[in-house]
Amino acid sequence: MKKIAFILLSTLIISCSSDNNSETQQPTPEDEFIRGADMSYLPLIESEGTIYKNNGVAQDPIITLKNAGCNAIRMRLWQNPSDGHCGLTEVKAFALRVKQAGLKVWLTVHYSDTWADPGTQTKPVAWQSMDFTTLKNTVSSYTTQIMTEIQPDIFQIGNETNDGMLWPEGKLSVNESQYLQLVASASSAIRSQSTSTKIMLHHAGLTGADYYFNKVQNIDYDYIGLSYYPIWHGKSLSTLQNTMNSLGQTHNKKVIIAETAYPFTFGYNDYTNNIIGLPEQLIPAFSATNSGQTGFLSAIKNGVAQSTHGIGFCYWGSEWVAFRGPTATNGSPWENQALWDFNNNALPVLSVFNPN
């Protein structure tokens, strides 16, 4: 009898223990806060023989970023670039590599064969002679193709579209209705292919952001994206946060700092002129040093995290080291703002990507 009682008691203990474990083993919540790095030039830079390192040892830079806590890789897509870099074939392969590493794919679709920004939004050469209806339909079919072949986690419709895209037809200040039709066409194509892909609209800087996002208030999208560089957009982090809060509240959207960067030195590592090289271009509290770069990005991350509407940040030009040698005049204007130093070794700033 004692033996039977012992067996029953043991079974009860095991059963209770199993029940307790099932109650405590909750699913891990999804890490929604985006800690991103734009790595658009990586395929090009690696194709020319550059090796990235971490603690002096060669390492896939995507893995270096992942191990640091980065959870999204941003990459630009050009429609038909002259050299093929940042075109659909290359970006599709790059996106697969990022997905296999377990990171989110954030596509910046320029709807151009080359750079699109506040001052330039040139239609792809193949689209130049289209009438507006054909152009709108082409935007829809091209967007559908991208969704089908890449299936990104974040789809950014245009790049720094302060005054629209696909000029002149989609120039916001001149052809507001047509720009909104083009964006709506892209948004509808994304939604028809995925219920999970987040749609972002992107404005460069803080001035004029309220105007732009008021114009697109009836577009179906998820994220407000802002570029913020002190050299161009002011040196007040409080103004940045106030703008984020105001936009998020007004439009009931999550806000991302979609582009930002900061120098770790004023030095050069090639003969290509750098964008930043003077103290007056910086925020006084953050010097052009390893600690200054780290402090700046930490302040950006914390400011976004403290905002009710903040959803993340992305560091731009992360990979853009001086990859063509010390005397190249067509190398990098950004090597003193990259996330790897002049020996291609990962910098301390990567610690900011830690989720804690």
Sum up the structure in keywords.
single chain; 356 residues; alpha/beta; eight-stranded parallel barrel; 10 helices; 14% strand; globular; disordered N terminus
Description:
This protein is 37% helix and 14% strand. With 356 residues, the protein is an alpha/beta fold. A hairpin with a 2-residue loop joins strand 2 (53-54) and strand 3 (57-58).
Oligomer classification: single chain
Instruction: Give the overall average pLDDT.
Output: 93
Largest sheet features? 8 strands, parallel, barrel
| Binned strand content | 5-15%
What is the fold's blueprint, element by element?
Layout: H1 2-24, E1 34-38, H2 42-47, E2 53-54, E3 57-58, H3 61-68, E4 72-77, H4 88-100, E5 104-109, H5 132-150, E6 154-157, H6 176-193, E7 198-204, H7 209-215, E8 223-227, H8 230-233, H9 237-251, E9 254-260, H10 290-306, E10 310-315
Parallel strand pairs: 1-4, 1-10, 4-5, 5-6, 6-7, 7-8, 8-9, 9-10
Antiparallel strand pairs: 2-3
